[in-house]
Design brief:
Elements: E1 26-32, H1 60-63, E2 66-69, H2 74-82, H3 85-89, E3 94-100, E4 105-109, E5 116-121, E6 136-137
Antiparallel strand pairs: 1-3, 2-5, 3-6, 4-5
Length: 140
């Protein structure tokens, strides 16, 4: 990856992985905890918000990504995740639709083949300006 590229957040060594690619134009889903006005924190990684409890089996690079859901199964996958106790506890039940393109950053699908993707946003990308659709309650 080009060393002149700057990312929105501090990333660990060798991050993002060489296998990450710029997204094709697509609306992805980011789970958020409210239907109000979005902030940069709504798109921050767990590493950036100092979330405690990184799972031992999760690499630091993925911990430093913005989790989104992509592809034809994105709404079903996001709804299933929003129902999990860990996410219900944090009220992550709302879908913010984020418009991505090849100027947004790079992303990579989770290794298990799910609709989940890790997104590493470029420094200049404004996720709030690229989220225009109404925020949807996935548990209604």
């Amino acid at each position: 990856m080009n060393s002149n590229i700057r990312f929105k957040e501090f990333l660990p060594e060798s991050c993002p992985p060489a296998t990450a690619t710029p997204p094709e134009p697509e609306k992805v889903i980011r789970l958020v905890s409210h239907q109000g006005s979005l902030t940069e924190k709504d798109f921050a990684s767990y590493a950036a918000i100092n979330e405690q409890g990184k799972p031992n089996n999760l690499c630091p690079c993925r911990w430093a990504s913005c989790s989104v859901f992509s592809g034809p199964e994105k709404i079903h996958a996001a709804r299933a995740v929003a129902r999990l106790p860990k996410f219900r506890k944090r009220n992550l039940r709302y879908a913010a639709y984020l418009e991505l393109n090849n100027d947004s950053g790079v992303y990579e699908r989770s290794p298990n083949g799910s609709a989940h993707c890790d997104l590493w946003m470029y420094e200049h990308f404004n996720p709030i300006a690229n989220t225009n659709d109404p925020i949807e309650d996935l548990l209604k």
